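Before going further, it is useful to explain how the protein records used in this thesis are read. An example of such a record is reproduced below.

***
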Amino acid sequence: MGLSYLKKNIKKLGIMKSRDYLDLFKILLSFPFGMMLKLFRRDIWLISERPNDARDNGYWLFRYIRKQHPEKRHVYYPINKKCPDYENKIKPLGNAVQIGSFRHHIYFWAAEKNISAHVGNGFPAPFMCRQFLLMGCYRFQNIFLQHGIIKDVLPFLNADINRINLFICSTQRERQAVIRDMGYRPEQVRVTGLCRYDGLYDFTVNPKQILIMPTWRSYLEAPYGHPASESEEKVRSSSYLKHYTQLFCNERLIRFAKENELTLLYFPHHQMQPYLAEFQMRCPNITVASAAEYDVQTALKESAFLITDYSSIFFDFAYMRKPLLYFQFDYEEFRKNHYPEGYFSYRKDGFGPVLDSVEQVVDCLIERYQHGFRMEELFCSRAEHFFEFHDTEYCRRNYEAVIGKQ
């Protein structure tokens, strides 16, 4: 891409903030130090997720390597050292790097492999480092562990606007879609499963806990550089807010939850959490889960039933053979403005009923509770045939894919 990419995207300078210019200075200043370090350490790996997280596939792979492959001494985890996950999870494992620090920039230049569960996350300066990555300045092997199983058409992951050398998938259908729809070469895409699935066993279900976990809506966010008030206004007038407010204030649901002493654990997507004040919640049995207090995987393992919409987290729930439903009140709007439908059809391939009204959701919840929150045979059969693996070797397969073992 090089200079042609820079010329084509020079308009990005118009949306650069003052911090971006400071990041640019750090990138350029750290370059000679990174090149010098690379002369002495040619095996530096960086494994990451979001700045404040150690809960997803990146953490699980890092944990596996630190425990099972101590000979890999130069594997590091960039993270905000002030966040709880650093103290509780990464610090005991060692080799943490303060995300965005000058040291992080040096390691980013020197790295042999950059491994992340999120495209653009784990970079010392997400906006500017991405520009340098796409210009071909960073020479590491870029490995995408994924955040979830792909089911939709995701243009932001296309090969021509990313520099991903190894793309991890969970099933052959997903792999075929990544190759066909996103432009990756077959040798770049491996089926190993998600590292965090090693943790989806040996769990105890709380039969009274219902997890409500919808995904976000990209079209409710203001463009980069625009004031947050634009997003707030979009959320206030959205069908998303309208329908979830109706659900949280539904008298039948409130009464049923109270009579049966159910806990409704609402886990908003991290990109929707800034707007929680906009939601009305009259049901006293609802607990709002913040990312700081609740671990997503723990919530998935403990919950007996899942209410979601389009979030790929339903794959994790179905993998454990637990019942769920899809609340898709805005299907046409979502497909038009967020992500188009891919190879996966919720009605033909899904692991629960597809519903579009609050009353249907309440009806289904009550009916499933009365049947002991058991997954129906049809959906059990679909789950059995969908997943490629059902073991505790996910981290091992990912590690072997990263080191190039066939």
The chain has 17 helices and 13 strands. The longest strand covers residues 206-212. The first helix runs from residue 2 to 8. The domain at 2-193+393-402 is CATH 3.40.50.11820 (Rossmann fold).
